[in-house]
Amino acid sequence: MHKTFRLLFLFIGFISFSQEQEQSLLWEISGNGLKQSSYIYGTMHVSKKVAFRLDDVFFEALEKSEAIALESDPSTWLDHSYKTAILSPQNFSSNYKDGFYTSLFNLEHPDELLIRGAIRQDNRMLNGYLYRKNSQLDNFEEETYLDMFIYQAGKKQNKSIISLEYLEEAEYLTAKASTNAYKKKMDPWLTEVYEKESPYLLQENTYRERNLALLDSIGEASNTPYFREHMLFIRNDNMVKVR
Fold it and tell me: What is the pLDDT of residue 104?
């Protein structure tokens, strides 16, 4: 018998909803025999203030939730990245060819440029994990991005954190989707829209207006069915099966 949680779901994709076409990022899941409501909220993975238009109903839903369900648990990221970097086959292939044991224990002074590159990469990694900030836009950004903000808010209230995806599978699916992401020719209606407004601003303004139906239509008009299948549909199907 599974314990019923009130969850605040944070999905990577935007789903086109048929129920009354309301323009909202926060949706309540109730009825059909459910004893408790759950909530789903659409986020942007950025620190820009456009993503932080959070009103009282958002924080009320967060307060009511017994657990916070994210794409993945941020507390597992560093360990995963470390294991992926250390255990990836490419890190062993050259050593194995030259003689695995002799190369593995051969101490050499690292190249200075490699050290500099590692330091710079570490900064980018920390920024990606904690802040996602752009120094040129610092006056228009929050201290962290929305997903991390919700994670931190949940931890402060001692709420359980649930990972909706296995990191390895999510990385596989997103990498697979990126190999065929964009249509060779986007749908004509979107081409006409882009002639009047930049794609970047259009997406931000549509999110600001909380128009999920239009966001989904933009994705469908510009991305290939292959991309949407692997980036959205398979991943979202996996997410709802998590126990």
Answer: 54
